[in-house]
Amino acid sequence: MALAQGGTLSSAGETVSRTPSAVSLQIAALEHRLGRKLFVRGARGMRLSDEGQALLRHAKVLLATAQAAEADLGTKALSGHVRFGMPQDFASSKLASTLQRYRRAHPGVGVTAVIERNATISTLARRGELDLALVISRRAPARATLSVERRSHWHARRGFEWHRPSPLPLVLLDGPCIYRDDALAALECAGIAWTVAFSTASVTAMWAADAAGVGVTARMDLGAPRAARQVDEDLGLPALRSTVLSVTRPDLRAAEPVKALEALVQAALGGLAEGGASRRGR
User: How far is 80 from 78, CA to CA, in rounded Å?
Assistant: First the structure.
């Protein structure tokens, strides 16, 4: 239904918190199971075939029936307040739309979203000042309920050039920063001269400098803007250590509003495991 309404795999993925490739695989599996072509692919996106239109009519009836059943059973409305924190890297990602979905589904729950440096989010989570947090670390935290391991890469704008033995210009976040530490350690180990051309406390400013061609930055592949291009092989730069992106719930006895948001955040991150190792916790 999401693909029929949105017309593209990306818009459908945003609606159901899945990657476009995951949506494509689900549609392919359904078409194989039914032995029918449900969508016709065109220059402007995807539209339903005649068989797809027929299936959509049945799907709408089933959805309406399910919603009516929930109403008859008197589904309890949630209330309360949830404090959720995530790094600046994901402020413009589909996690923002996940929060909007949660607010629409649970209008009785207040949500405070804290968007800060990863180090700040990690500290707030450890202190119990957040009910739910998305954090980046070297290994999965003890209170992680879902962890996805991702490779880190060197990023620069298209056409960026650098030639040895001149120092590699770096665009980095101010410390403490796990990627800053990894970048400098990798370059030192490889014997590559470097210079910090731009340092900032803002992830947005960091990517802006990277896009302007000021230098090269190190970051995981998730959350990188489209203008950023991986240049590991092109520039012959050393491999960077992997990092782990985790959903953490400091209080394992959290109330239902927290668990409901946690389920949505986990669903949004679930598709990311296609490109890395995923581990579920408690």
Answer: 7
pLDDT digits (tens, 9 = 90+) for 21-37: 777 878 887 887 888 88
Homologous superfamily in CATH for domain 152-241: Periplasmic binding protein-like II (3.40.190.10)
How far is Cα 280 from Cα 260, in angstroms, rounded to an integer? 17
Specify the CATH superfamily of domain 80-139+249-280: Periplasmic binding protein-like II (3.40.190.10)
Rounded (10°) CA dihedral 190, 195, 198, 203: 10
Reduced to 3 states (helix: H, G, I; strand: E, B; else coil), residue 243 is strand
- Both tokens assigned to 154: 């060197």
Tens digits of per-residue pLDDT, 91-107?
Answer: 766 677 788 888 888 88
The answer to whether the predicted template modeling score (pTM) of the entire model surpasses 0.70 is no
* Omega before residue 165 within 30° of 0, cis: yes
140 compared with 217, residue with greater pLDDT: 217
